[in-house]
């Protein structure tokens, strides 16, 4: 055992509990937090048992609802299930905890499904790649690993481009539960690292450029009812997953305060939980095989779900089994704290005087034996009493760094960028930046039927003692028609009460997009509007800050400390993108924009040129197998 002084120095330098008493979505997918497996084992065991019964053919579907107050461990249970599936296989894990606009819940579900398929599965490749590997092996009666196929697929397709269509047809003939063979084709493209991001975007309902669409044989579909289209695609994908595995669909964090859009009759006045459980019922009704898990507070279940007219139908489907999680008894507290400390000391390769050091059993007994606390309360107490007291600004710095590094791809997500920009600009209300005194940020752009979501918010204020109303439209779309439609709205100053239109787009506008270019010329040359090209490292801090701000209560951080953090670090007021939106328009198009098609072509070329002779030989072998 090292000298006690060395251990105490380690304790003073790092607090393993600080900031980690809330299980965040990236921890569900990434490195697991220390898990005292005895805690709420009955809940995780019930979910894993249901998955096994579905896999064994003893059940077709199962609906489970986890009920527990804040901080008792709902997300931790789901994280445990996810990591067991990753270690041992047995299911494709689908996890949603962010829901965006409730009026677009089915689109949000499809995007959450595809986001989950991007995550690593049992074979250390994306779950979608594992899925298509199983289907390919069934088709050609081989046992290739996903990694072997991924390593060779780009070279195979470069040599035999027609093979994608042949394999699509062969897999489709298996009767895999999809109506649209293009879904199979898109999954095949995920085996090529160059094409996978585009294929997954297409599966999520996002547009490709005309060149990408033609090259990959994935048509851009114009949908009048995007929600219905998204739900249809999601159900087909769930059926396809069910053909060779078990989809495990988890809806977490249903306890939000927001309500549906009052202008949408289907969700107007309904809460997040009510909209999501209704979606869960619809999924369950159409699910041929799978396990559906929802997690919420007991109060949410009683006051929001049980008052719904269709509560019996909902309960029979998504909550056939309701499981309450337990507050901790003293042995549970000791197991939890000792497990976290064990991991901490193992990381530093030291042996403490005893497993609870620097705490002791008597201390834990005094604080928790009668209290029966939730997990979060115990971890919060440990954070507050482990070494020096926590510094809220230092804690926010660590949270910011972690959140920033764990953000998923967002550069094509109009809504996520818009939400981040609007939130950050709102923190500047009452301040003057780039000559604009910001009075308010208006997210309710009317008339809605005219806007159709293209202008996401308005910055309202004063500039040179004159009213200014800047309409901001984030248009990262890849299709000329969508970009043109958005640009057209940005020129309708009278309709939307604008004094200036601002396009936020990092991608080029192609010369043959006639409508888009016509509206762009009008916006910049005639109306004095602006085109701002954002960089990913300018947007990333804004997305991270909004994510932290939405969870301040869970992190036990006061609003005034968050505001102090913003003022000290100046992450918003000195952000180049924020300043560019507010500054006087330059009257020119930005010089730095991305040419998507050029990037796509260069990536394809780089792959074809990088294959060595050994790789090509292996690819030829695989090609022969795939063609038989």
What does this structure look like?
With 628 residues, the protein is α/β, with parallel strands linked by helices. Among the domains are: 4-22 and 335-390, no CATH class; 102-245 and 596-628, no CATH class; 414-582, no CATH class. It has 29 helices and 11 strands. The strands form 2 sheets. A 6-stranded mixed β-sheet has the order 6-7-8-9-10-11, with helices on both faces.
Gap between N and C termini, in Å? 63 Å
Please estimate the helix content.
40-55%
Rg, nearest Å: 26 Å
Number of helices: 29
- Give the neighbour order of strands across the main sheet: 6-7-8-9-10-11
Summarize the structure.
The chain is α/β, with parallel strands linked by helices. The chain has helices at residues 4-13, 25-29, 41-55, 74-88, 105-117, 127-140, 146-159, 163-172, 181-189, 196-203, 210-216, 226-244, 272-286, 298-305, 311-318, 330-347, 361-368, 375-385, 392-406, 414-426, 448-451, 480-490, 493-496, 514-526, 536-549, 559-569, 576-582, 596-610, 613-627, and strands at 61-67, 92-96, 247-251, 290-296, 321-324, 432-433, 436-442, 457-463, 466-474, 500-504, 530-532.
């Amino acid at each position: 055992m090292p000298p006690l002084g060395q251990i105490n120095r380690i304790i003073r330098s790092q607090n393993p509990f600080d900031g980690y008493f809330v299980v965040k979505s990236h921890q569900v997918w990434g490195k697991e937090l220390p898990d005292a497996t005895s805690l709420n084992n009955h809940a995780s065991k019930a979910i894993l048992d249901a998955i096994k019964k579905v896999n064994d053919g003893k059940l077709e579907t199962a609906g489970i609802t986890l009920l527990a107050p804040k901080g008792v461990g709902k997300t931790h249970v789901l994280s445990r299930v996810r990591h067991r599936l990753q270690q041992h296989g047995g299911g494709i894990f689908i996890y949603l905890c962010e829901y965006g606009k409730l009026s677009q819940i089915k689109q949000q579900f499809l995007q959450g499904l595809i986001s989950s398929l991007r995550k690593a599965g049992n074979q250390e490749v994306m779950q979608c790649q594992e899925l298509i590997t199983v289907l390919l092996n069934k088709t050609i009666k081989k046992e290739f690993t996903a990694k072997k196929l991924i390593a060779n697929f780009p070279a195979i397709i470069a040599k035999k481009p027609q093979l994608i269509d042949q394999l699509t047809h062969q897999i489709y003939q298996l009767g895999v539960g999809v109506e649209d063979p293009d879904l199979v084709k898109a999954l095949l493209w995920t085996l090529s690292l160059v094409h996978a991001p585009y294929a997954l975007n297409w599966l999520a309902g996002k547009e490709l450029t005309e060149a990408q669409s033609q090259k990959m044989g994935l048509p851009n579909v114009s949908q009048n009812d995007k929600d219905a289209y998204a739900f249809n695609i999601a159900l087909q994908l769930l059926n396809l997953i069910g053909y060779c595995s078990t989809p495990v669909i988890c809806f977490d964090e249903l306890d939000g305060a927001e309500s549906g859009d009052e202008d949408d009759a289907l969700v107007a006045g309904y809460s997040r939980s009510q909209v999501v459980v209704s979606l869960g019922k619809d999924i369950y009704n159409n699910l041929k095989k799978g396990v559906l898990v929802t997690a919420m507070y007991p109060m949410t279940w009683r006051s929001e779900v049980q008052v719904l007219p269709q509560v019996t139908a909902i309960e029979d489907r998504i909550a056939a089994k309701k499981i309450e999680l337990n507050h901790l008894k003293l042995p549970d507290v000791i197991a939890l704290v000792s497990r976290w400390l064990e991991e901490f000391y193992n990381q530093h390769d030291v042996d403490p005087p005893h497993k609870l050091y620097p705490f002791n059993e008597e201390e834990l007994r005094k604080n928790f034996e009668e209290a029966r606390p939730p997990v979060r309360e115990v971890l919060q107490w440990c954070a507050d009493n482990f070494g020096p007291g926590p510094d809220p600004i230092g804690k926010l710095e660590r949270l910011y760094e972690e959140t920033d590094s764990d953000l998923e791809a967002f550069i094509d997500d109009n809504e996520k960028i818009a939400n981040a920009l609007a939130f950050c600009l709102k923190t500047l209300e009452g301040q003057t930046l780039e000559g604009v005194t910001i009075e308010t940020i208006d997210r309710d752009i009317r008339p809605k039927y005219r806007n159709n979501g293209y202008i996401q918010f308005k910055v309202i204020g004063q500039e040179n003692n004159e009213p200014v109303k800047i309409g901001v439209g984030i248009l990262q779309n890849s299709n000329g028609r969508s970009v043109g439609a958005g640009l057209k709205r940005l020129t309708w100053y009278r309709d939307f009460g604008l004094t200036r239109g601002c396009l936020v787009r990092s991608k080029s506008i192609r010369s043959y997009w006639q409508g888009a270019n016509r509206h762009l010329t009008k916006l910049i040359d005639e109306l004095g509007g602006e085109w701002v090209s954002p960089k990913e490292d300018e947007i990333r801090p804004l997305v991270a800050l909004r994510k932290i701000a939405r969870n301040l209560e869970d992190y036990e951080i006061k609003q005034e400390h968050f505001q102090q953090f913003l003022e000290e670090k100046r992450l918003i007021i000195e952000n180049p993108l924020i300043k560019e939106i507010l500054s006087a328009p330059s009257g020119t198009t930005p010089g730095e924009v991305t040419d998507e098609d050029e990037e796509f072509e260069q990536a394809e070329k780089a792959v074809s040129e990088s294959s060595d002779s050994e790789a090509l030989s292996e690819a030829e072998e695989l090609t022969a197998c795939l063609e038989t």
